[in-house]
Design brief:
34% of the residues are buried. It is built from twelve helices and 41 strands. The radius of gyration is 51 Å and the shape is rod-shaped. It has five domains: 212 residues, ATPase, nucleotide binding domain (Nucleotidyltransferase, domain 5, 2-Layer Sandwich), CATH 3.30.420; 144 residues, ATPase, nucleotide binding domain (Nucleotidyltransferase, domain 5), CATH 3.30.420.40; 85 residues, Beta-grasp domain (Ubiquitin-like (UB roll), Roll); 98 residues, no CATH class; 92 residues, Ubiquitin-like (UB roll), CATH 3.10.20. It is of the alpha+beta class.
Length: 712
């Protein structure tokens, strides 16, 4: 029904669900006047409502059904939608300022003004939630724009103006979930859908205080059976709402005790005391009794005084700690004799400025029914109908995975809104990634994300839908949670660092070597599957031995790296040159790193070999002395070992055990650790020049061997 224009003659069904009675009004707006087409009143048979709160939803729902069916009979048509109002038993209000900017001048439409108000309601709710220190869920049940602004200046009506900026000061009212939910369930029992929800004082003020009077600082008091609802006007707008949980029923309860009657009889005594001088009744013992109107007023005077004082205190609080200029009173509870006079006294204003509003405020109402009620009891029901044309405020209910969910209807509700309201986990709506994999490469952290899972499967009334699909009242929404994808997996060979090749020159040929990496200190192949928290070091070098193995060729002797003597474990980096003599054996200088035990074993073996050689030489000398064989022409022994004395690092060293010696043999007779390079280059000099490892030695040769820092 929201958004219907008055010229269409759309019937509006307003229902005032009060503590003592339910009043149904059906009418339509035409030419600025509201026409009442039908009206029905039904009192509760039991105390199904107390202080404006529904206590027995089923009984209230049946009473609503009765009123609806009577109206349908009067109108000869079915009623399916209804406007209702809530009493503010635990009313909370929030005043907020909301703005809308446009990139260029924009002509404001009715929809723009509605959208601005909706933004204000949502903003007010967010502000309210910040201060809501209870577990109670509240809903907005009404709002009133207090002031509009166009480009920073206050204006009465935005519609039709061209603006770059429009704004509004807005007062929003909130009530607990149980109050709102009870009303909705009661009308649903009667087969009705709520088209608009407002607050009772907002509804009453539509009739009781026309806009032309709202420039005055006035109060409207709607005294019902369970609550007294209050609204304040000033400067042409409604500035505040309030409520006290004391009204007509509290007076009836006093008569129940005094007269010893049931609640219904006490209610009749209270009403008739305002019309007759004496009232006859029968007490619970079945005895006939008579009470005067004067006596009733005497019995109720203290409570009337208390009610008036609480209302006056609330008015002052809402009005900035001061009294208003005048008060209009509506509702059945306000018709108790003496109430208006007492309220005027408590406010400190003349009694003539506190008055019950009834027929005189219905000058713009046309009744198309016989014997209509025009008293103050009808002000709120008609105001509920009129509120429909002023603002659209409603809740819808959807079934979300079998759970009934209530949503504030802003005209653009989606599956996501329903999910939030039903506490459905947000992460179950969107695809979830599998477990990520974290590790380090060369000391820097790296993460590989898991695979994306499947999105949630969403259906509205059985049809496939998206998370942003709009939902409407009564929709059945089912959501199968999204799934998580596979956890992250990554092979070592997929690292981008390993895609780069290492370029070196080996024996004059250009060689491209694949990069390798170690994981947690251990060399792994490209198919290694990286694990959580692995520490990966991408190697930027090969050893000489590894290069030979990669090339699948034997490693020769005389190894040179960048023209410097090296060994099999020497590291070779990008653009290094490497050379060896493929026809030469690997010498001691080329040996890989040894343990202490291996080095001692090697020295022991060499010592044994030298000892065997000395013994062989001695045996040969013995044979020579016996003349078994002559000498060579140069006078040297033909097959015997000989000693050779040289100077190494300025110290005399004697080489023994061989017939002849080459440069590399020196390392077997000196204490020089070939494994202690620490990034340095070895320097070998023979008689002041660079030596070749396989170069022959002569007696008296001067040899220098030492470490030198690499040149950058």
């Amino acid at each position: 029904m929201a958004g219907v224009r008055e010229e269409q003659g759309q019937l509006v069904f307003g229902l005032d669900i009060g503590t003592r009675s339910i009043v149904g009004t059906v009418g339509y707006l035409n030419g600025g006047r509201f026409h009442v087409a039908a009206q029905r009143v039904r009192e509760h048979e039991t105390r199904a409502m107390l202080d404006g709160q529904i206590h027995d939803i089923g009984r209230v729902g049946e009473t609503v059904r009765y009123v609806k069916e009577m109206l349908e009979e009067d109108l000869n048509r079915k009623l399916t939608e209804v406007c209702i109002a809530a009493a503010g038993r635990v009313l909370r209000t929030v005043t907020t300022h909301v703005e809308q900017e446009y990139e260029e001048e924009h002509e404001v439409t009715e929809e723009d003004v509605y959208a601005l108000a909706t933004m204000g309601v949502e903003q007010a709710y967010e502000e309210f939630q910040k201060d809501n220190d209870t577990d109670i869920r509240f809903y907005c049940v009404g709002y009133t724009p207090m002031r509009y602004y166009m480009n920073g200046y206050q204006i009465g009506n935005l519609e039709g103006h061209k603006v770059r900026n429009m704004a509004a000061d807005l007062i929003a009212t909130f009530l607990p979930d149980d109050v709102v939910d009870g009303l909705y369930k009661a009308v649903e029992i009667a087969g009705l859908h709520v088209a608009n929800l407002t607050l009772e004082p907002i509804a009453a003020i539509q009739v009781a205080i026309p806009e032309k009077f709202r420039m005055l600082n006035m109060a409207l008091v709607d005294v019902g059976a369970g609550t007294s609802d209050i609204s304040i006007t000033r400067d042409g707008t409604i500035t505040a709402y309030g409520m006290i949980p004391v009204a007509g029923d509290s007076l009836t309860d006093i008569l129940v005790q005094h007269c010893l009657v049931d609640f219904e009889t006490a209610e009749r005594i209270k009403r008739q005391a305002g019309e007759k001088e004496t009232v006859e009744y029968q007490d619970i013992m079945g005895l006939p009794q008579t009470i005067t109107a004067e006596k009733v007023q005497e019995i109720l005077s203290d409570k009337v005084h208390e009610m008036a004082k609480q209302v006056a205190d609330c008015i002052r609080e809402l009005n900035g700690d001061k009294a208003v200029s005048a008060v209009f009173v509506v509702g059945g509870g306000g018709m108790i004799p003496g109430y208006t006079q007492q309220l005027a006294q408590e406010l400190g204003i003349v009694s003539e400025r506190v008055a019950i509003r009834g027929p005189e405020v219905m000058q713009s109402i046309d009744f198309e029914i016989e014997n209509p009620r025009r008293d103050s009891l009808m002000v709120t029901p008609i105001g509920i109908c009129l509120s429909y044309y002023v603002q659209s405020n409603n809740f819808i209910f959807v079934d979300f995975n079998g759970k009934r969910v209530k949503l504030y209807d802003n005209g653009r509700l989606t599956v996501a809104d329903a999910a939030v309201q039903s506490d459905f986990p947000n992460e179950d709506l969107f695809p979830k990634r599998g477990q990520a994999l974290t590790f380090t490469v060369n000391g820097k952290s790296r993460i590989v994300r898991g695979e994306q899972g499947e999105a949630a499967v969403i259906r509205i009334n059985g049809e496939a839908a998206s998370i942003y699909a709009q939902v409407h009242n009564g929709d059945r929404v089912s959501v199968t949670p999204s799934t998580a994808g596979e956890e992250a997996g990554f092979e070592l060979g997929r690292l981008p660092e390993l895609a780069q090749r290492l370029h070196v020159e080996v024996n004059g040929a250009k060689i491209d070597l694949p990069r390798t990496a170690s994981v947690n200190g251990k060399l792994e192949n490209e198919y290694y599957r990286i694990r959580e928290n692995d520490e990966i070091q991408v190697r930027n070098s090969y050893t000489v031995r590894e290069i030979a193995e990669f090339m699948d060729v034997p490693l020769g002797g005389g190894i040179l790296v960048n023209d410097t003597p090296a060994k099999p474990e020497t590291s070779v980096y990008e653009n290094f040159t490497l050379a060896w003599d493929p026809d030469a054996a690997v010498t001691y200088a080329d040996l890989e790193e040894e343990t202490q035990e291996e080095a001692e074993a090697r020295r022991a073996k060499k010592e044994a070999e030298r000892e065997a050689a000395r013994q062989d030489a001695a045996q040969e000398k013995t044979q020579d002395a016996g003349g078994s064989e002559g000498t060579k022409a140069d006078g040297k022994p033909g097959n015997g070992a000989s000693d050779l004395s040289v100077i190494v690092n300025k110290m005399p060293v004697t080489l023994s055990g061989k017939e002849s010696y080459v440069f590399v043999d020196v390392f077997s007779f000196i204490d020089f650790d070939l494994n202690a390079s620490a990034g340095r280059s070895i320097v070998t000099l023979l008689n002041g020049r660079n030596a070749e490892y396989m170069e022959p030695l002569s007696a008296g040769d001067v040899i220098d061997i030492f470490w030198e820092e690499r040149k950058v």
